[in-house]
Design brief:
Elements (H helix, E strand, L loop, with lengths): L1 E6 L3 E8 L2 E9 L6 H14 L9 E6 L2 H14 L3 E4 L9 E2 L9 H14 L3 E6 L2 E7 L4 E9 L1 H11 L19 H28 L4 E5 L3 H4 L8 E2 L3 H13 L2
Length: 255
């Protein structure tokens, strides 16, 4: 079995692949930064719950945007568990031609999404990752990463609005029944959630207009299950796309 870990600014997402199938997955908060002992305890606890042991894990592939957590998991796997750990870097994406000004600046999470989506569909794509930030990345029909757009994430926008406007309350992240809100909460849900879905649709159309042709549009990330059904232009929703990209990278490096 192969353990894959995607460390983001909000959550650490874990998955276990067995015979090319994601059999288990779970997430824990990235903040506050837990200790090495807490990370190891959490990992062992989940494995025990699924009736798995550390010895069932053959290797691990990790992508991270939080350096301190990267170091913690490196110490856990290399020094304590004595397991192989592959930390994904841009150099591992030999199967994905990165056609941008500075390839080393592109987040590995964006590259993992692009790699996994192209592996699945083998066509031109827009990959939308709705997480702490929202990214919209373009892959050509030849499997080239062409760049994209980075925007404020849905939760980040909501928190900023509540912080700057003292009379606006925190709201539940759910789609309202109507666009014209009849109270403050409904109005905020309409503006933030429906407005976000409209932005996703509009940006995907603008990208396709610039490309000059229609592409498939894939949504992933922690908030994609909320936003995707409200859009007109998202073709597919794949919640575990980044984890699948990690699995593909691990396989490519261990043939």
């Amino acid at each position: 079995m192969i353990l894959v870990i995607d460390i983001g600014n909000s959550d650490c997402v874990f998955g276990i692949y067995h015979h090319q199938t994601l059999t288990y997955h779970w997430r824990i908060p990235s903040s506050p930064i837990p200790s090495e002992e807490k990370c190891l305890e959490s990992l062992r606890g989940v494995l025990e719950k699924e009736r798995l042991g550390i010895n069932d894990i053959r290797g691990c592939c990790l992508s991270s945007v939080v350096e301190s957590l990267t170091l913690i998991y490196q110490a856990i796997f290399v020094n304590i568990l004595k397991k192989e750990l592959l930390v994904v870097e841009p150099a591992h994406f030999s199967a994905l031609k990165i056609r941008v000004d500075s390839p080393e600046e592109v987040g590995t999470d964006r590259l993992l999404n692009a790699l996994a989506a192209f592996h699945l569909y083998r066509t031109a794509l827009i990959v939308i990752d709705l997480g702490t930030a929202t990214t919209m990345d373009v892959v050509s029909s030849k499997g080239e990463f062409l760049g994209g757009a980075i925007m404020t994430g849905l939760k980040t926008s909501m928190e900023a609005l509540a912080a700057k406007a003292s009379r606006l309350p925190p709201i539940e992240l759910k789609a309202p029944e109507r666009i014209i809100g009849k109270n403050t909460v409904e109005s905020m849900q309409s503006g933030i959630i429906i407005g976000y879905a409209v932005m996703v649709d509009s940006m995907s159309l603008k990208i396709q207009e610039e490309l000059g042709f229609r592409t498939k549009t894939i949504a992933t990330g922690g908030l994609s299950s909320l936003i995707s059904p409200l859009t007109a232009n998202v073709d597919h929703y794949i919640g575990d796309l980044t984890l699948y990209g990690l699995y593909l990278i691990y396989q490519s490096q261990n043939r």
